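FW: tagging you since you asked about this chain on Friday. Here's the raw sequence from the shared folder, copied in full. Didn't touch anything.
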Amino acid sequence: MSNLFQGNYPTIQAGIAFDLNLRNRGPQGVFEQTVQTERQIKLDTARVEQIITAEVRNALQQIQTARQRISAADSSVRAASEKLESELRLFGTGESTNFLVLTRQNELADSRTRAIASRLNLYKSIVAFERAIGRALEAAEVTLK
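HL: got it, structure written out here
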């Protein structure tokens, strides 16, 4: 303790510390990480664009298919209606039976049901298309505030 109070220090210690980084890898690592993140974002963007493109193409194809089904269903309704009229004429002359008339009526009802279902599918396809191109709310006249 006496050496401490008298200021008599028998040992002296000195030191020099050098920190020499010829190549600072920290910022380079951050840069490489940023480059990888940018690549990942570009890949994700391309993937999303491909998904949207596929959805739009599928929706357009569904619309075309639904229109063709409507045309076919309308032709089926006309044919079933003509068959029923013919069967009714035959029934009126006694050349047909109740069973055949009822069968033709059922065929006409089925054809009309298919025609309605095909129109419904067209509307669903149009909604899917509007959703795919991002105009579903506008098409439904919905506004967000």
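FW: The chain has a mean pLDDT of 88.
HL: agreed, and The helical segments are 2-6, 25-92, 98-132, 136-139.
FW: great, closing this out.
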